[in-house]
Amino acid sequence: MNLQSNDFEIFGLSPAFALDERWKDLQRQAHPDRHASADAATQRQAMQWSVRINEAYQRLKDPVKRAAYLCELNGAPIQAENNTAMPADFLMQQMEWREALEEATGADELERMADDVAEARRQRLAQLQRSADEQRDFAAVAQQVRALMFVERFARDIENRLEQLGQ
Amino acid sequence: MALLQISEPGQSLDPHQRRVAVGIDLGTTHSLVASVRHGVAECLPDEQGRVILPSVVRYLDPAQGGSGRQIGFDALAAQVSDPANTISSVKRLMGRRREQVGDVDKLSYNVVDEQGMAQVKTVAGLKTPMEVSAEILATLRFRAEDTFNDDLYGAVITVPAYFDDAQRQATKDAAQLAGINVLRLINEPTAAAIAYGLDNGAEGVYAIYDLGGGTFDISILRLTRGVFEVMATGGDSALGGDDYDQALAAWVLAQQGLSEAADAGERAALHKEARRVKEALSSADSAVFQAQVAGHSIEQAVTVADFEACTAALTTRTMSAVRKALRDAGVAKDEVQGVVMVGGSTRMPVVRRAVGEFFGRDPLVNLNPDEVVALGAAIQANALAGNSRDGDLLLLDVIPLSLGIETMGGLVERIVPRNTAIPTALAQDFTTYQDGQTALALHVVQGERDLVADCRSLARFTLRGIPPMAAGAARIRVTFTIDADGLLSVSAKEQVSGVESKIDVKPAYGLSDDQIAQMLQDGFATAQQDMQARALVEARVDADRLLVATRSALAADGDLLSANERQQIDALMQELQSTAGGNDAAAIEAASTALAKGTEGFAAQRMNRGIQQALAGKNIQDV
What we know:
The structure holds 2 protein chains of 2 kinds. By secondary structure, chain A is mainly α. Chain A has 2 domains: 7-61; 88-166, Up-down Bundle (Monooxygenase). Chain A is 74% helix and 0% strand. In chain A, 22% of the residues are buried. By secondary structure, chain B is of the alpha+beta class. Chain B has 4 domains: 21-239 and 313-395, 2-Layer Sandwich (Nucleotidyltransferase, domain 5); 241-312, ATPase, substrate binding domain, subdomain 4 (Actin, Chain A, domain 4, Alpha-Beta Complex); 403-511, Substrate Binding Domain Of DNAk, Chain A, domain 1 (Sandwich); 523-622, Substrate Binding Domain Of Dnak, Chain:A, Domain 2, CATH 1.20.1270.10. In chain B, strands 1, 2, 3, 4, 11 and 12 form a 6-stranded mixed β-sheet that branches.
């Protein structure tokens, strides 16, 4: 690296605008359609690579999944199914949300709730980024990921209710 | 054939390098086949110049001596006179059981459940939807092979984006029955996007609104530098133009104070009239519905407003699927740069208006909505067959419906969420419920609902031989693999002992490999007649080609011949011409061979002249 290096090289990143671009470049090489007239062994290889690239892409593009993956790489797996212990205030807030959702009737009310939950998710993601990149405290990150999973499930439930109303 | 063929400079293709690859749009009401010729995708016409093949198959009564069937326009013509044996809209039955087919009682033919799938009871016996579809596919295959005078290398077949695994598998089975090598199944809206995007050099986010005869699809795609990325897809695999016809027919009956048609023939006639009126209303403000019901002739004036009112619920259903797809894609409707209309049903002004109002822009209708899907499939087929040298086209598609496993209490554990990019493999760990449990039953389902009962059951299989352990100690990893066709296979492995089990998800009501083999064999038994018919068609096509070539050679270089030689060739041509009008394939071939032989000397003289002229500094094109 030297003073003439470009921005990406200085930051040690591949020169692509976003994850999307890199994903597409990789699939351009690997996708089975690119090898449709090749021999069976090549086709199998293409399939395996293409699957692997899609797996990585799905995980990296979603901030919560990316965080969970980071935790796992750093020896603090999420274990969402065994570890459901959450702070009391978080559980209180969840219960309040659930009650509010049950009582909500109109689409306006639901939309407002969806906005609130989206804001809570945004704040938690910012906090998660600090824990992961600045403090490198992966036990704390794992806890935050579990909380975000609750928040996201709740957001989906609101979405489902909105869908039912729309039909 | 002895006449030498000279192709235009720069356009000659080595026939051994070029593979015949086609795109097939296997539609509810009609089907098409297209191929890339001279770098341009075009739909292939039948002998009478028609590109559309009605997706209708009529089975003839074997007792009447006919072991055959009619396919396409001939079958369509018999729909009212022989409704019970004339199968239209068979696509609605693909991969379905009887009760899963919407409005099954309103069909003019008899659908029963046999071997766990919907089948049609005809005068020639039970027919599976795959067999019926195979007749349509085989007809298109022959059309392509006749056009190129070569065997088909493979085909890309389109399916509605919203087709589930069972429906996709059924489509692939049908292709296999028709002897077609499936290069890829691709989604109809994606195919349309390819045809549209490549035609217009489009970049950005596009919505494809595809309302066909029996299915509705909405896809949101991002187009960048030749990559077609499907962001989200949705729709309804049982909603299409047919439903608009049914709604109109029902409305007319209600206006007349009638409850329903008396029999299947009347129903078919009502449906046909409803379609005619619907189509008339695309260009007129009103039309008159005329039909015979229970002995009365009815006449009902229908205005555009009437039609819009009685079909409003259907249009609304499509728009709520559009909203859901936009949410899934995470795209606001003003980010959409264009809305491409696909499918014959988007010719209805009511539909165009609803879509235009929702997106706040006029939908794009500059490609023929009937042909655009087949054209896109042809472009993809050409690329997959290795014919295309521009390597920029890449499709990144998604699965339309979530896939999961049944867990305790009849709940669904989602393993692959909808709109995940394919090919993909996703795994999830499960464990045992009881101490000493040595087997685990897995039930694979597809759908968005939380209860198994509300989802589509795809397959059941059992992992056996798990060593006895305490409840919850086993680690069973279930992996879902979805290939580039969108087809699923599932494997399960106990992590501690390494015990493994795997299944290619062939739905319980699908065809087993044995059944396919049997059907292919049965097909050969009745294929004798087909082969004769085919030989005749081929002989005629060859004869035609030879006559055209000879005529143009005579026009260019006839002066090389003596009067006597000319007379002989004329006589041979006349002989071939008259033989080709008959039904004897062998005689036509013999006459073709005679003409070819008789023109050998003439061909040699022409070639000499061409070379001499070239030596004198003239190009063959200038001659």
